[in-house]
Each structure stands twice: as C-alpha cells, then as structure tokens.
Amino acid sequence: MKISRYSLFISLALLSVSFAANSQDDLLKLVDSSKSNETKAIPTTWKDTRLINIQTTKTVAPGVMEFFILHRFGNVGGASGGGIHTLGGFDIGSDIQFSFQFGITKNLEVGFSRSKQLEMIDLDAKYKLLTQNSTGMPISLAVYGDAGITPVLNSTFYPSGYTEKELTIDRLSYFGELMIDRRFGNHFSLEVLGGMQHRNYLFASTNPNNGAGETNNLPFVGGGARIMFNKHSSLVFDAYYLLSKYRTNYPVSNGSGYFMPISVGYEVETGGHVFEVNFSNAAYLDENNIIPSTHDTWTMGGFKLGFSISRVFGLHK
User: What is the model's pTM?
Assistant: First the structure.
C-alpha cells in the first residue's frame, strides 16, 4: 500500500573540464573557497566540506575537484551483532561511498556520489550565502540540496507480494538543509542546521506505542562541532534529531527501533589529504539513508568504526 507519490525534480549541471592535477597547491587554499586575499577573512572554520555525517558550510574552490572515499564497518558491540566473531565489526562493511565535488564559483559546488547501500546514486549542490569575517559578518550560512535514486532490483526495492505498478519515480528521494556556523577563536567551531528529507515511496506503517504513522517528509535539526588541537588536527562531532512522532518511543527489537545518528571522530590534514577516523551509530553514509533509517544505538554497542579520506585536485593550471 502506498501513502503518497510525487516528484520534486532537481537538475544539476556539471561542467566538463580537462583534468590536470596540481599537486603543488596547498590543500587549504584549494578546498576552501571562502579564503581569499581579503584582510577581513578569518581562518577556515572547517577542514573539509563534510564533517562526519553532516555537511559543513565550506565549498570547494572554483576550478578544483575534491574526491572522497568513505567506509563504515559493522557494529562493535556483541549485543548489536558485532563482538569477537566479527572482530568488532571489521568483518562487515556496513556502507562504502565515493564522491566527487566540483567548485564552480567561489561559493557554489556541485557533485555526485555512489554508495553501496541500496546502490544509491546522488547528485548534489551547495551554495554559500554568507561568509564569516573579522569585522562585519559574525556567521557563515549555506544551503545544500541532494537528489538520490536507488537502482536496485525490483525484488529488493519492493517487498514480496507487491502488486501495484512499479515506477522509476518511486526510487527517488530528496534532501535539503540550511546550515549556519561560526568559528569561535582559534580552537572551536560550531554549526547548527535544519532541513527536510523526502522519500517518494514508502509503505504504510504505524508505531504501535503511540499510533503515529510513517510519513514521506521527515523534518530534522542537527549540529556539529570541531575542537582544534593545532592547525592540522581536530576532534569532531555531529548529530541529527528527527522531528518524527512515528520514531518516538518506537519498540526496539531486532534492529527495528529508530535512534538519533550521533558521531564522533578525529581528523588530520596530512599535506595533500584530509584523513578522518570516526565512530557512528549510523550504518549508512548517505543522508537520504542516514536520516530515515538509523536503527542502532550506542547504548547497545551499535556504533561502527569508519574512516574517510579526501583529496583535492586542481583542474586547470
């Protein structure tokens, strides 16, 4: 049984560019489009365009491509399917993702990614509306949008016994958010965000504890923080909170519960790369899956080791 189906089409145009890697350029100069020759500019707020599970307000500089590879293992705790027999989740690959981000203008980037889970393919865009500086603007502000499609087999996407017409539009999902951040001094940055995730297709489902039904639209808020030890390394955190009555007090059994995605990590810039190791209770790496489908909890060992590596390349001399 379908609840609703409608399409919000987002089109993104990626520039066709010639590839010429410029390994001599400094990483921070390449990846951070907000840093310029202006004397009022503050030091970069974030090391990268992505924290752990959330986006930051940072955009890739024009004429630059950023490549990400992300991996998340299985649950560490035995109570959540991990433990000694999976080597604390090392034997399991919960999700793998690669992505490419292209700087179009000083404040605009576009990109695409592909994830292992549900074979999700995404197109995305980010635009930075405001940039914090030392005298006039106290915050940075950006908007981010994503459109994803899952091309898995019908037998995987639809449950057994499904009899209604199968449409490509069912497989689309969307994600949009507004992000506000500020760097406080030399060692601390904070971001808050809010947005909406939409799935074109889902099944009717009711929370037996409160009678609330599942919805196509999922509003959310979230936040992230960075504590800088020095110019090259930081401790990072992020989390989402869903404004969903259906997910409130949902019965927990065999991975059927719903929990806030909460993550903590350590990132380091190594000259040409940004490397991050993290722990998260989210099994997915794509926001269109993280938001509606985080079923593990930290309290039962349902957190997973993960890592990400990013590298920037100049696309013109």
Answer: 0.84
